[in-house]
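The following record pairs a protein chain with its ligand, magnesium ion.
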Amino acid sequence: MALLEVSGVTKVYGLLRALDGVDLKVEAGSFHGLIGPNGSGKSTLLKSIAGAHYATTGTVRFDGQDITTAPPYQRSRAGLSFKFQITAVLNDLSVYDNVLLALQSMESNWALLRSRSRQRLDAEVMHALERFRLADRADDLAGELSHGEQQWLEIAMALAPRPKLLLLDEPTGGMSPEERRVTGELLAPIKSECSLIIVEHDLDFIKNICDRLTVLDQGRVLGDGTVAEIGRDARVQEIYTSRV
Ligand SMILES: Nc1ncnc2c1ncn2[C@@H]1O[C@H](COP(=O)(O)OP(=O)(O)O)[C@@H](O)[C@H]1O
Ligand SMILES: [Mg+2]
């Protein structure tokens, strides 16, 4: 059974079908890229998986549970984590406290009162920061980080609770080519513990880090396969050479 199974998902906004019968499967231990022109429904699909809104019809199954109508916090507890397109770090808090808050939101109030849990949380915060090259910025305000570092902080926050599946919507938007390259390097090692669905415009970036790709066009799946298969698909090439 796949870790995530999206079946026949449709999302209607008024007269617009932003998603129209989308199927998507993501296996455990896989990095899955979601590509397609602007407005093709990529963000809408991620939001339906995360619970930021509900699919109009269709089902979303995650780790054996039907989560189609589950609220976002239940999806988080089940092991789903997400970072949307707009940066959402708290600028006036330290880098350390941003990650601590992300972790505390998953703990019970009772657990938070115990000093042993505070020590454990401290170790987990520092581990998350080290993975994203932010350990020496722990005491700085998040607002003082560069745009690229803020994106890494948000990924560190999303990964800190050790999800089974991470959803990233254009995490390298606004990054320099060097920051983009480093982002690929930082994401690669998480594969042993967490699957990924990533929306990205930079095809070279996505081909380098993903195992499989799904191509959306006008709310429908135009292609789905390994990176090599999608690279050979004439319809996908047509979209990318003539319309993007
Ligand atoms: N909240 C909304 N209300 C109405 N239309 C929306 C809303 N969100 C997205 N759309 C429309 O749905 C379509 C898909 O959007 P989106 O998923 O953001 O595309 P992508 O992320 O692939 O660029 C677009 O036509 C967009 O204008
Ligand atoms: Mg989008």
